[in-house]
């Protein structure tokens, strides 16, 4: 879930320098999985399964999970491609990657967890059948560049999937969202020992494009057949687009 976020004004603004983002996720790595489960009542696993379904992978396919964090979405992808497939989880928080590797050693899943910057991926063009990002796209300093990089490393006809929190517009859920994200989540962060990181979370969600605007950004990045679905009452958005023939954007 971590990624480069270069243009920064501080954790309360929802934008950070990439060194600050890396340090923040390194700090919270130890409580990250527990906090995800508390904040979402465990539903984040279901949402990741839906994202993996949208990647439309089969046995023997290859997938890249960007801003993989502690690897939960990468593990979902691995269950789709099987032992003959290949999954790479990329992140630039080494502490997050350490935990992902520990989880992989326990599960037996042969996933490669590698250090990488989402804005400059160290992979060749057309290297994967799909690329995903779960709760990390809002941390991209340059969203268009990050999504373009994802499209670049996926073969034509492959899929790019984005799982992200979005801001509901209609009451009563809009009221609940503000109450939960603006007050409860920072309070939970204080209990976990890092209030600033969990103040950054709601602010980063607010500055992220709405679902329709994100579709337009995906189209500019060479993706077609774009569609999205809202779930959890409109708090979670899953977007998917198909990579166009290279040079046909």
Tell me the layout of helices and strands.
Layout: H1 18-40, H2 44-54, E1 62-66, H3 72-81, E2 86-91, H4 94-107, E3 112-115, E4 128-134, H5 143-153, E5 154-165, H6 173-192, H7 195-206, H8 211-220, E6 223-231, E7 236-243
Parallel strand pairs: 1-2, 1-4, 2-3, 4-5
Antiparallel strand pairs: 5-7, 6-7
Question: What would your notes on this structure say?
Answer:
By secondary structure, the chain is of the alpha/beta class. The protein has a domain at 11-57 and 131-243: Rossmann fold (3-Layer(aba) Sandwich), CATH 3.40.50.150. It has eight helices and seven strands, in the order ααβαβαββαβαααββ. The protein has helices at 18-40, 44-54, 72-81, 94-107, 143-153, 173-192, 195-206, 211-220, and strands at 62-66, 86-91, 112-115, 128-134, 154-165, 223-231, 236-243. A seven-stranded mixed beta sheet has the order 3-2-1-4-5-7-6, with helices on both faces. Helix 4 links the parallel strand 2 and strand 3. Helix 1 crosses helix 6 (173-192) and helix 6 (173-192) packs antiparallel against helix 7. The model is unreliable at 2-14 (pLDDT under 50).
CATH hierarchy class name of the domain at 11-57 and 131-243: Alpha Beta
H/E element order: HHEHEHEEHEHHHEE
The CATH superfamily of the domain at 11-57 and 131-243 is Vaccinia Virus protein VP39
By secondary-structure content and strand pairing, the structural class works out as alpha/beta
What CATH architecture label of the domain at 11-57 and 131-243 applies?
A: 3-Layer(aba) Sandwich
- Please give the radius of gyration in angstroms: 17 Å
Low-confidence stretches: 2-14
């Amino acid at each position: 879930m971590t990624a480069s976020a270069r243009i920064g004004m501080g954790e309360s603004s929802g934008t950070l320098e990439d060194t600050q983002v890396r340090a923040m996720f390194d700090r919270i790595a130890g409580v990250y999985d527990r906090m995800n489960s508390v904040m979402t009542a465990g539903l984040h696993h279901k949402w990741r399964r839906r994202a993996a379904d949208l990647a439309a992978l089969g046995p023997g396919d290859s997938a890249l999970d960007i801003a993989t964090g502690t690897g939960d979405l990468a593990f979902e992808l691995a269950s789709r491609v099987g032992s003959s497939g290949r999954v790479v989880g990329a992140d630039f928080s080494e502490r997050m990657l350490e935990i992902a590797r520990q989880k992989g050693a326990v599960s037996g899943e042969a996933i490669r967890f590698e250090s990488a910057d989402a804005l400059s991926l160290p992979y060749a063009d057309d290297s994967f059948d799909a690329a995903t990002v779960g709760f990390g796209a809002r941390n991209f300093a340059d969203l268009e560049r990050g999504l373009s990089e994802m499209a670049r490393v996926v073969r034509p006809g492959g899929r790019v999937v984005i799982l992200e929190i979005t801001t509901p517009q209609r009451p009563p859920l809009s009221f609940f969202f503000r109450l939960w994200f603006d007050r409860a989540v920072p309070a939970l962060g204080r209990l976990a020992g890092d209030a600033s990181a969990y103040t950054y979370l709601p602010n980063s969600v607010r500055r992220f494009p709405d679902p329709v605007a994100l579709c337009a950004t995906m189209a500019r990045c060479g993706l077609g057949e774009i569609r999205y679905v809202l779930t959890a009452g409109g708090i979670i958005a899953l977007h998917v687009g198909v990579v166009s023939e290279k040079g046909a954007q």
